[in-house]
Amino acid sequence: MSGEETQILGFTLGMAALAMVAILPPGLALAWLLARRTFPGKALIETLVALPLVMPPVATGLVLLHLFGRRSAIGRFVHDRLDLNIIFTWRGVLLAMAVMSLPLFVRSARVAFEEIPVRLEQIARTLGASPARVFATITLPLATRGLTAGLLLAFARALGEFGATIVVAGNIPGRTQTSALAIYQLIQLGRDDAAMRLCLASAVLAFVALFLSERLLRRRIS
Amino acid sequence: MRRSRFGFTLAVLAGLGPAAMAVELNVSAAASLTDALQEIVRAYQTVSGDHIVLNLGGSSLLARQIEEGAPADLFLSADEAKMDALAKKGLVLAGTRKSVLGNTLVVVVPLDSQLRISGPKDLAAGSIRAFALAEPQTVPAGIYAKEYLEKVGIWRRVFDRVVPTENVRAALAAVESGNAEVGLVYKTDAQISKRVRMAYEVPAGHGPKISYPFAVLAQTRHPAEARRFLGFLASPPALDVFRRYGFLVPAGSAAKP
Predict the structure, then answer these.
(1) Chain B residues within 8 A of A171 when measuring between CB atoms
(2) What is the nearest CA distance from A35 to chain B, expressed in angstroms?
(3) pLDDT band with cut points at 50, 70 and 90 for residue B12
(4) Of B64, B105, B70, which Cα lies nearest the Cα of B85?
(5) What is this structure's pTM?
(6) A152 Rama sector, left if φ>0, alpha if ψ -120 to 50, beta otherwise
């Protein structure tokens, strides 16, 4: 594996990891709300969160491009006030990966929360624990396996992200090029050997993440 | 159905051959030809009865697909090198290759841009963060753009701000959306867009020679129909359309259909 390929894999892994950090707080909050609360518009939120899972990734990319591009309110604010660009930078990669992998995490986390008997949380409450403390000491520890499995699944999805990424972040070698984008470019350059090496490495990484995820889920059930 | 019968009637009237032989031709064409080609294809289908299926994209990907056996009957490339590569592999039908079109590079900025750009020196300005080009290693428009920037000596100063796109239209779109401050695209693309303005045109002689080779592919099962469409592309009515979209049509390139 060449230095260039190592850089690409390192960048992809780093970005996917960062995306997991980014989706953890909103993902947990959403999953908990969907598992434990009923509120008006719940079905709508559920559907919206799951949407990137089934929409063409390129279409999700287009939506993100319009939401965060230089002509959008958010994009303009970030550019003018913070002097940052999202589109065509690593932030775009992060954004695409986070949005595309969030639904997978939320779904798994929701199931993990739902499997915890509400009774346990209620007992803790009657013993005087605050809701925050119940969440931190009862809900979260009991759901850890399911949450980790979900995070690994989302991580694997983020590693392979292509469609939304190429629209939002472009395919800039050394700056926004993830392994999926690099494979695509290598095919066009006719460098099939390098493309195959990256394919193989991506397959191994995805395999490990999925394998661990499955194992965690299996053990929880038994 | 009705359309094809209409086409049949016209084809018979035009003496172009019986519609019983109407075939479907798969044409892999460079993205920069999109609009002119769509117009020409519409006209051609009406008179010939043959159905033209356009597969538009970056010439490099198209060439690669053809190498891998994609079922294309004609290849309309945006650079000679891609066609050379296919010819070397024996994929081009001998004697059918012709280059009838040329193009020019232009620098474009978003319509509302405050940037003052009148020559290559201005392209290295620090206020330019994203410079959209087609991918400079594989896509012809990008290869041409890089050649030009190297020729005027500023490639080294701008390359780390280059946003390489999959094809030249994507580079144009990046400038249209304002996400790239500057783009280097074909004049034909710039003319189509209402959301960019041309900062300057690369003068002939400063830029690389851009030419579009067309050819029938050796694998075609309809060589006669493919040749006929190729002939039409080089006929005066088609060349008029190309010219209207801003392509350079060298004098004397018109062939008999």
Answers:
(1) 135, 164-166
(2) 39
(3) very low
(4) B64
(5) 0.77
(6) alpha
